[in-house]
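Dear all,

This email documents one entry for the complex benchmark we are building for the journal club exercise. For each entry we list the sequence lines for every component of the assembly. Then comes the predicted three-dimensional structure of the complex as a token string, followed by one or two observations. Please use this as the template for your own entries, and keep the labels exactly as they appear.
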Amino acid sequence: MLYSVVNPPIFVVARAELTAPKQEKALLEIAVNLMVPSATGDGEFNGPSINEFFPDVIFFEGTNFEINRIILIRFLAVAVLMLVFWLGTRRMKIIPTRGQSLAEMGLDFVRVNIAEDLLGKKDGRRFLPLLTTIFFMVLFMNITGIIPFLNIAGTSVIGVPLLLGVISYGTFIYAGVKKSPVKFFRNSLFPPGVPPFLYIIVTPIEFISTFLVRPVTLTLRLMMNMIVGHLLLVLFFSATQFFFFTADGGFKLFGAGTLVFGFAFTLFEVLIAVLQAYIFALLTAVYIQLALAEEH
Amino acid sequence: MLHAVIAAATEEATKNPLIPEVYDIIWSAVCFVVILFFFWKLVLPRMQKLLDDRAEAIEGNIAKADEAQRKAEAALVQYTAQLADARAEAGQIRDQARTDGQRIVAEHKEQAAAEAGRIAASAKTQIEAERQAAVVSLRSEVGALAIDLASGVIGESLSDDAKASAIVDRFLAELEASEVPSHAAAPSAGKI
């Protein structure tokens, strides 16, 4: 959404592969590179490409357990997450220390603002482990996108977004079916208050929006935000590098501009990282709440 | 050159970001399961326990504060009662002391008055006794003196006791008779 202007090249690359004429792909690749206007002239400027999300395999090459740089970054994010919360909750005191109050603040945010707010005390507590996991997993893997030397979000490869999307999908269906299968499907597919003959139109729409679109949007929203955020940052900083060290004369001034933009977007990425984690957890909670609701 | 770029580009652009790799899903699932169990079994129970403890502590403190207040009120009532008792007792003691004092003063006054009366009475009797003694001794001495004198004057011994004492008695009776009309007429006695 935020990056709709920049999104098309990625989609286009993707679609290009499906149709697969090689030259078209190459042209699109170049088109991606041409997104920086001043990269004309000498070909030394290397814009970001989608291949950055598929780095070389480091361990277990050729097996189903290949580990590349991004997988390692995910492991690091998981390790940091566990360290933070293990330390933060190690010796819980009634009057919190500074570290504890930080961990408490994070956990309370999910517990109060997402789980209990939408699902109420009882169901909120039931789904709290899942919502907490989703929120912090997404948050910690997003934030690696702006950490120096990591510089890529663990959620920018489809594995994590897809997995979490499917889990969210499975969870709200499980919640609805467990409560009352008939009511769940009736509420989902035949919303009350609609004249019966309209169900011919409404029911397919509801089916698509509830059972097809939800997991897809959850997955793509997160992944695309992270991919595009990364590409933007790479673009700004590689352009800065290019202007400062390769371009001549007056073009060097552009470097200052791209550097400022790069810095601004780095800060913006922090916001995006938190926001996407919040949205993912919040939407999961909303879907569960809709599945548990008596009436829509 | 263009061909080289195209060739490089086509070779590189072989990945579709929307198609998940198996290893990607597997490691994502591992990460998810680890984090889920970490929160589910470790962090959230700790957090829940803390919240329970905190709620309990707050309730406990409120109960404690109530207890303390009740005790303080009881103590206040007790102290007030004690203070009132003490005041009353002090008042009693003061009254007692006052009456005692009055009684003592009165007793002492009485005693002093009695003593004074007694002293005055004894002094009077003493004076009277001394006067009697003086009168007696004076009578005998003055008699002897007068008889000596008179015997010298008349040259005759008046040592005949019966006679002498009769004379003296008569003389003194006269003396007394002359003294009686004016009790304090010492000079008239002096004239004799």
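Observations: Residues 17-123 of chain B form one domain. Chain B touches chain A through 42 residues (CB under 8 Å).
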